[in-house]
Amino acid sequence: VFLQGGARFYHPQSEGRAHRLEISPEKKVLELHRNARHPTWMRLEDGRVITADWIRLDTVHMLFSSRNGIVNKSTSAK
User: How far apart are CA 27 and CA 38, in angstroms?
Assistant: First the structure.
């Protein structure tokens, strides 16, 4: 699945927004990418918010990677 232009996703354990969102069931990866107008963020069920240039989630091992990533305990994303 490939979405572009202010893409959003909702899941019981997280939600997020990005300029470009890619979901690869074969690779078991979710990727969010920003652009100048659309920041990338992901809010986890415990209230933590990850903001970054891009966020990659390995859905098998639940491991995150990012570039210029910041994790906040805030409950609101910018």
Answer: 25
